[in-house]
Write a structure and sequence with these properties.
- It is a single chain.
- This protein has 713 residues and is α+β, with helices and mostly antiparallel strands.
- Among the domains are: 85-164 and 221-389, Catalase HpII,  Chain A, domain 1, CATH 2.40.180; 462-537, Hemocyanin, N-terminal domain (Up-down Bundle); 549-699, 3-Layer(aba) Sandwich (Rossmann fold), CATH 3.40.50.
- Helices cover 27% and strands 15% of the residues.
- It is built from 19 helices and 19 strands.
- The protein has helices at 15-23, 62-72, 106-109, 169-176, 192-200, 205-211, 259-268, 272-282, 337-342, 361-377, 459-467, 470-485, 490-503, 505-515, 560-572, 618-625, 628-639, 651-654, 688-699; strands spanning 85-94, 115-123, 138-146, 149-156, 226-227, 232-235, 241-250, 288-297, 323-332, 355-356, 549-553, 576-581, 586-588, 594-596, 599-600, 611-614, 643-647, 671-673, 676-679.
- The protein is globular.
Length: 713
């Protein structure tokens, strides 16, 4: 885990070069005087120029007109999809050069090169003002500022997509967006048009299974996988191609919220994921991701029971393992959201030597769509020169003029070939120093027809279902019931259930039972029984409490000695403890000292934390027991299967009918049962094993074995 923001200077085009490039355009206004955009100093900016104190405003007031005009034009069109985003700078570095036989892309093969990056995480369906914790796909787009030019890996947190051909993208987005007659609902897929589309387009079902799973509810961007989605092509020095799929795996593991938490967080803190990313980087808890690849020789293009060019399919990791390439660390927040996060422009066609496309029909359309989108959003063809988009390599071509041209080109030629400028800029070469399109023979009739190899719509949706653990399956069923329960037209509900019957009969029956439609009488086809353990989040990393947020509930008379010791121990494990009390400020401890409180309980919520601890102190516990916010805080954390702990008198707060676990009694040092950690000890007797056991429970993310059926909602 990274602990500092030190960057290495790897020579021309290294990580430091991008920082110097950005530093050159950053402006610190500390100690400056107010001016117009023309640099004219201004002595008054609070009142317009008028005829007398109450007379009409004059057009002579050039300063007011400039100020208002700029304000009127400050907003640009938001992205049609992925409008709500968060960004961060970082760097990527390969572990070694094992990929060199497959690609000439230096940033993937030279372990001495540290490539600067900018990553934008986003939701897909909602507007810029929507909440972070909606059920949705998340964008995971990475711009690599390589020494060979900019490369954009524009992916999502799910490895497949809803459609196979990009011509259907407008239809899908129109279906999932707020319905046009009333612009409702915002950032939600739980409405008629989306599910009508799904029922009519069975190719969506694999992605819909992912969307109904916990993958659509990430705990944080730091605990979220990323995928390139498409099959791309690596090209080596000899011009030989290899199919590749890209994977980002977070070092902290892949963890999710539960749906009840998501809905409550949207009200308590709609910026939950954005805030988490920002605060983690500011605190030096830098998010880290390992880039891995699945490689398929071109000779094996047709060796699978699905088409490699089909973006609704995965290559199961059990068939083709993901091999690690290198690691990305995000270590620097943007200085200005608009200038950087909002203006960053990604494009699937931004590639470098050693990486090329395939004939994936969804990818081919994206290669047109992204550029077209940037032209309207960012006001013209010069958006690549906005600092966040600017390459670290020199840009030398004959493209001129246009909106927002920031370069002053010298000379009299802007064409190729020429003799008046010595033939410059001249063509580069040879390969692999320049980009050269992968050569393959293409021939055929012009037709509009989907390949037969794309027409298996159900088997991988079944694979996903079979791969889920019991808790994950329960969440998927509950998600379908919630979503379809908001669909007004019964025939649409029925049609979706009929489609689910092609995925798994029991799934369809369980969903039908909750939404008031007829369950299928028989299965359409037997479940093939195959599974891929890598698809279940229960098989992710669960060995670290690093950066997990812990609420310690305190009140007057709390055991301050033990609380201070616990805080230190939790920090040693990498957790982030915060003290919450019935009021803000400070609380008086049992020994007459004071503990500074981080926040009042009624301004926070258990859904904003990964675990909760109730310390000793009879007076403190009595006050917490009489505080409805505190009692609900603990009850809700237990209900959501989170790590819950108490010691000394604090155990009494957990001694409730709904806490069907073993609690420490008398002199028991530490008792752990289903993610609940208790100890009868207090003050100087609190054993260090208490914090260790609690952090082990935090690392597991949830205690799914805990029964919470009787817990008050």
């Amino acid at each position: 885990m990274s602990t500092s923001s030190d960057r290495r200077d790897n020579g021309p085009g290294g990580a430091d070069d991008k920082q110097r490039q950005l530093d050159a355009v950053r402006v610190d206004l500390t100690g400056t005087e107010l001016t117009t955009n023309q640099g004219v100093k201004i002595d008054h900016t609070d009142d317009s120029l008028t005829v007398g104190e109450r007379g009409p405003t004059l057009l002579d007031d050039f300063h007011a007109r400039e100020k208002i005009t700029h304000f009127d034009h400050e907003r640009i069109p938001e992205r049609v999809v992925h409008a709500r985003g968060s960004g961060a700078y970082g760097y990527f570095q390969p572990y070694d050069d094992w990929l060199a036989p497959y690609t000439v892309a230096e940033f993937l093969t030279n372990p001495s090169v540290q490539t600067p990056t900018f990553v934008r995480f986003s939701t897909v369906a909602g507007s810029r003002g929507s909440a972070d914790t909606v059920r949705d796909v998340r964008g995971f787009a990475t711009k690599f500022y390589t020494r060979q030019g900019n490369y954009d890996l524009v992916g999502n947190n799910m490895p497949v997509f809803f459609i196979q051909d990009g011509i259907k993208f407008p239809d899908f987005v129109h279906a999932v967006k707020p319905e046009p007659h009333n612009e409702i609902p915002q950032a939600q897929s739980a409405h008629d048009t989306l599910w009508d589309f799904v029922a009519q387009q069975p190719e969506t079902l694999h992605m819909i299974m992912w969307l109904m799973s916990d993958r659509a509810l990430p705990r944080s961007f730091r605990m979220m996988q990323g995928f390139g989605v498409h099959t791309f092509r690596l090209v080596n020095a000899e011009g030989r191609g290899t199919f590749v799929k890209f994977h980002w795996k977070p070092i902290l593991g892949v963890h999710s919220l539960v749906w009840d938490e998501c809905q409550k967080i949207a009200g308590k803190d709609p910026d939950f994921n954005r805030r988490d990313l920002w605060e983690s980087i500011e605190a030096g808890n830098f998010p880290e991701y390992e880039l891995g690849v699945q490689l398929v020789p071109e000779s094996d293009e047709f060796a699978f029971d699905f088409d490699l060019l089909d973006a609704t399919k995965i290559i199961p990791e059990e068939q083709v393992p993901v091999r690690p390439v290198g690691r990305m660390t995000l270590n620097h927040n943007p200085d200005n959201f608009f200038a950087e996060t909002e203006q960053v422009a990604f494009h699937t066609a931004n590639i470098v030597p050693g990486i090329d496309f395939t004939n994936d029909p969804l990818l081919q359309t994206r290669n047109f769509s992204y550029l077209d989108t940037q032209l309207i959003r960012l006001g013209g063809p010069n958006f690549p020169f906005i600092p966040v988009n600017q390459a670290i390599t020199p840009v030398t071509n004959n493209q001129r003029d246009g909106y927002h041209q920031t370069m002053i080109h010298k000379g009299r030629t802007s064409y190729f070939k020429n003799t008046l400028s010595g033939g410059c800029p001249a063509l580069g070469g040879p390969w692999p120093d320049v980009f050269s399109h992968y050569q393959e023979k293409v021939e055929g009739h012009k037709i509009r027809k989907r390949s037969e190899s794309f027409k298996d719509f159900y088997s991988q949706a079944t694979l996903f279902w079979n791969s889920m653990s019991d808790p994950e399956k329960k969440h998927i069923v509950a998600a379908f019931r919630f979503e379809l329960g908001h669909v007004a037209h019964k025939h649409v509900r029925q049609a979706v259930v009929d489609q689910l019957n092609h995925v798994d009969h029991n799934l369809a029956v369980m969903v039908a039972g909750g939404i008031g439609v007829n369950p299928p009488e028989r299965e359409v086809q037997p479940n093939h029984g195959r599974s891929s353990p890598a698809l279940s989040q229960l098989n992710t990393a669960m060995d670290s409490a690093f950066s997990r947020k812990v609420a310690i509930l305190v009140a007057e008379g709390v055991d301050g000695v033990a609380v201070r010791a616990l805080v230190d121990q939790l920090k040693e494990h990498g957790a982030i403890p915060e003290l919450l009390a019935p009021h803000d400020g400070a609380v008086r401890t049992a020994d007459g000292d004071e503990l500074q409180v981080d926040a009042a309980i009624n301004t926070m919520a258990s859904v904003l934390y990964d675990g909760v601890v109730v310390p000793c102190g009879p007076q403190s516990v009595q006050m917490l027991a009489s505080d409805g916010y505190a009692v609900h805080f603990v009850t809700e954390a237990y209900k959501h299967h989170k790590a819950v702990a108490a010691f000394g008198a604090g155990v009494d707060l957990l001694d409730q009918p709904w806490a069907s676990v073993q609690l420490a009694r008398d002199d028991e040092p530490v008792v752990v049962d289903q993610g609940v950690v208790t100890s009868a000890k207090a003050r100087n007797d609190l054993p260090a094993e208490f914090a260790t056991a609690f952090c082990d429970a935090l690392a597991k993310h949830r205690a799914w074995e805990r029964s919470t059926d009787g817990v008050p909602a």
